[in-house]
Amino acid sequence: MAPEHVQSALEQGQLNSAYSRLGRNGNYSREADKNGGGALAVYTRAVGTQQANWKSQGHGVGSNDSKVQLILSPAVLQNPSHGWRASSTDNMGRVPGSTTSHQAGLPGNDPLGRAPLWSRQTEAGRNRAFNDTVNGGSIQANNEQLHWEKVPLQGNLKGIVATSQGSFNTLMGMNGAQQTAGVAGRGSVRLGTQDIPVVLAPGNSSLVSTLQNAGIADANGRVR
Fold first, then answer.
1. pTM above 0.70, yes or no
2. pLDDT tier at 117 (50, 70, 90 boundaries)?
3. Residue 53 CB neighbour total at 10 angstroms
């Protein structure tokens, strides 16, 4: 996400869907958003510990040095008490598990009006897609999960990775942020009573290695 939006997310304690921010009259240019998948969801991307070539800069739409990555605990996927999750892809907004017949009669360009598609998911189907993604050693760019409306950050946010000095500086300018004394490119931001580690890394460096070096992941590359 853009670093200038991190403070409001921390203050709200959650990541919000596009629909919750923009409402029914939002300018939804992507078909996936109009169809109710993208706009109603918060996207995450799962990275298996063997995917050592996954770059710190990230992958997918909007991934670049002007954005930062919020590193979440896998508990978000393992215990999705905050609502639906769809593994692998948003299928142009139709959500995995829905078919053409499920879409008949649903309004166009009205994300919330197409929300019944979310009920067509199955736990087995999304688990299978998720496991296929993270169990392989090669980079899987199409490894998205969609979370209904929001993702809570308390207890789930474990770190933030920036790949440009400007993004890192923006985070360090937030209320309660602290730069680690004597250590360039390290610091923390405040979430409730927690200090969330922030690390600046080269965009082409391994994300898994970056998280390990920053203490966000353990020696096996797992975020807990």
1. yes
2. confident
3. 12
